[in-house]
Structure formats: C-alpha cells, structure tokens
Give the backbone structure.
Amino acid sequence: MWTVLAHPSRRGADDVYNAVLDQVAERLPCRGTVVLTADRGVAATPLLEHLTEWGWPWRRRINGSFWSDRDGIRQGTVNRMPLAPGKALFWPHVYMTKQAYGPVHLALGRPIGRQAYWCVVSDEPTESKTFEEYGRRVDIEANFLDDQANGVQLESSLLRSANAWEHRCGVLAITTLYLVAQGTAVVTQGTRRWVDSHGFGGQSSLKIGWNWVKRALSKGYELSTCVYISPEADPVPAMASKIQHQKPSQLFFAGEVQDAVA
C-alpha cells in the first residue's frame, strides 16, 4: 500500500500513516502475527496508539535525544546513559518523550567499535532478541536499491505530479511482483548462474528476474507464467562479497548484558 503526497518534508501527518495502515490491515490474511518495525523517522506516538488498536506489536528505533522516565525519575536523554561498548540495557516500564508516553520497554545497546547507541522501544518486554527483530527492517533497504540505482531509476523520472506518482507506483508494484517471482523461479530451477555471474548471490531477486526476462527474450527461453513466491528460505542467500562472507561474524554485543529488568 502507498500514498503519494505533494509535501515539502519526507514525513507526513499522523492521519496519513494511519490511513495507509488501515488499508494494509484490511488486506492482510487473518492468520499470522504482524510486527511493525519503524525507523527513527516515524516517531509519532499517535501512530503507536493506532497500532495498539489493531493489536500489532511493534519495534521502533528512536533518536538518542528522546527523554525517558523510569520509576518516576527523569533519566534524561537516552544518549546520556552510561554504557560501555559491547553492552546493553533492557528497561521495562519506561515513559518516553517529555509528554511521558508509555509505559513502553527500552532496549539500549552500544555496538563494539561504534559511538552511536542503538535505541529500540517496544510495546513488549525487551531482550537481546529485540535488536534482531528490529534488524529485519533493514531487509527493505534492498527494495529501495531496486527502486533506484539498481533497478527502475525512480529518481531519474523527474515527475512532479503526485497523481502521476500514484499511477507510477501502481505499475512499479506489479512489475516488482512479477520480476521477483521470475527471480525466485530461476533460483529454484538452479539456473541462477546464467544471469548472476557473481555466483554468490550478489543480486536481488528482482535483479535476477529482470536479467532472466532480458535473456529469455533474446534467447527464446520460456518465461514463468505463474506468479508464485515460495515462503521457504533462499537456498542461496545473498552476500555482499565472498571476502566479507568469509570473515568471522562479529557479535553485536560481547560480554555480559547489563540487565536492568525490575
């Protein structure tokens, strides 16, 4: 679902977000659990209240400048909490912002080798797994790349009409579904190397599907006529590079976790 606004800012009004979420909720299957992950740009408390109405749990990253209250004591901004590199804090029943929104649950971590904190707020009790749950949101970055330099070059369209963008997004949604289905079919059939010369999954499913369509049209191959995306895990997960993949994985947090659960 999407909506296009003629707007000077990247962030819209709360009622715009809520209206899109209402449309999403009407189209989701009844079974399954919906967990919404949101970046720091979506920081409105009315949105969180709307999620509660739908019964959706959420994980939302916040800026370090957010204020927090715990046990009736103003703790100050999140980024001023003392935390050693590789350590994490998990606080229940915290009230966020100067408007004291809550209670919510805070997961605060400081990755090794980085100055910036990871601050994730949840409507459910937090633990180390909370960072992993929020981290799944990063998967959408690959879709942004397909929409831009790696794929359809949206930023080069130079459209200025919100109505034209609405229609373009509709075409893009259908195209994305078709190409991703083609790409997953290629992987399932074991012909990925024909269109992904890297051989280690350096391309997205959309890019694989795109290359396959071009190859099929030039070589006379058959295209898949079934738009089906398997729920199974990718048999050949994508890697940034072989060198990066061969490096030992670095733990997000080392040592003991400072558990501040009351």
About this structure: The longest strand covers residues 88-96. The longest helix spans residues 162-189. The mean pLDDT is 79. The chain has two domains: 14-140, 162-231.
